[in-house]
Amino acid sequence: MINQLIQPYFTDFLLHSYMNFVKSKRKRKMRFRLSHSLRLASSLLTKSNKFQFHHFTTTTTATPELRPDPPPIRVGLTDSAGRGVFATRPIGAGELIHTAKPAVCHPSPNVLHTVCYCCLRRISNPDGSEAQRVSFCSEDCKRRCMEFYNVEMKADWAAFDDYCGTHGLKYPFMVKRLACMVISGVARSDSVDILQPANLTPQMISRMEEEFGLLWNAFRKTLISDEDISFLTKQWYIGVLARIRINAFRIELAAGLYEDLLSSAAASVEAEAAVGHAVYILPSFYNHDCDPNAHIIWIDNADAKLKALRDVDEGEELRICYIDASLDRDARQELLSRGFGFQCNCNRCLHGD
Fold it and tell me: pTM for this structure?
């Protein structure tokens, strides 16, 4: 059942963001898009008793009688970058803005046996085997993942996994997990619809269609009913993958206290350093800046922490760096264009830094 403390607080947060947006008197078309997105997010809280809404949490300690304070942020439209996250009060350097749990995550294939299959925590003594294929860091993680993991274990993924491995693909594994979550009833098929999709080329779509065929065949050969996989269409697969492509975070766990990492930028793009990838709802609304005022970090699992890198004024947009901020301008522009489909026009890039 949905956490009764989080549900009213997140609904208030969405309504507050929408009302602030309406007051800005943006164009009607953009107003409709944001309104639709906020209604969709609210529907995640109300339409399914079985769905565990855990996209973000606060660190405020609350009793059952008290509603936790919302994070000091709102979602609204920016002048040039679509949706963004804005401070609703002054935020001090080093302050924890909010935390977030992934909507969906998956370990990197090369560390599959050394991290928790649920939360991506590193495991020093894995309990998995070739027969078992995966490991869990605790009985709690094993219990939380068992419903969708049992669905996954019903299918033969050899062809799908081989295709992804041969082509160096990582995001299709996240779509596979989300499909298993939907089939098991722990997630909705429209869980990530609120996120912005990537622009896809005909070549990308053609490859995604191949991936979908392998995914579909794997499920069709199981005893899963047609009704349970009725959502699983080619359009659904491509739509989810298009959103994961530009909204997935590469999870690199900190070796020490995160207070020591405030001066560093977002994680590097080296896949070998990652324990996996995850998609979040609220953190995906943060826009990019090569000189960010906020930072997303992971301490020991896929639970994300958003912290301020410097003092932030009320009303100021909070931005994170999507790539390694230490790279030179040309390298940053190339990575952002290739990986995220935009050209950065932040002050640092405009000045050639």
Answer: 0.76
Q: Which amino acid, 273?
A: A
- Amino acid 48 reads S
Residue 284 contacts residue 103 (beta carbons within 8 Å): no
DSSP letter assigned to residue 290:
S
Which three-class secondary structure state does DSSP give residue 283? helix
Question: How is residue 112 written in tokens?
Answer: 């599959």
Separation CA 72–CA 230 (nearest Å)? 40
Instruction: State the distance between the two ends of the chain, measured CA to CA, in whole angstroms.
Output: 50
The pLDDT tens digits of the residues spanning 252-269 come to 998 544 443 443 343 333
Residue 76 in this model has a pLDDT that exceeds 90? yes
Residue keyed to tokens 């080329």: 201
- CATH of 73-100+280-351, picked from 2.170.270.10, 3.30.2310.20, 2.60.40.10, 2.30.40.10, is 2.170.270.10
Phi and psi of 241, rounded to 5°?
Answer: -65, -35
The answer to whether residues 323 and 335 touch, using CB atoms and an 8 Å cutoff, is yes
Helix, strand, or coil here: 174?
helix
CA angle 57, 147, 120 (to 5 degrees): 50
Q: What is the pLDDT of residues 20-48, one digit of tens each?
A: 444 443 444 444 444 445 455 444 444 44
- Nearest Cα neighbor of 41 from 78, 16, 5, 77 is 16
Q: Map out the domains of the chain as residue ranges.
A: 73-100+280-351, 104-248
Residues 281 and 38 sit within 8 Å (Cβ to Cβ):
no
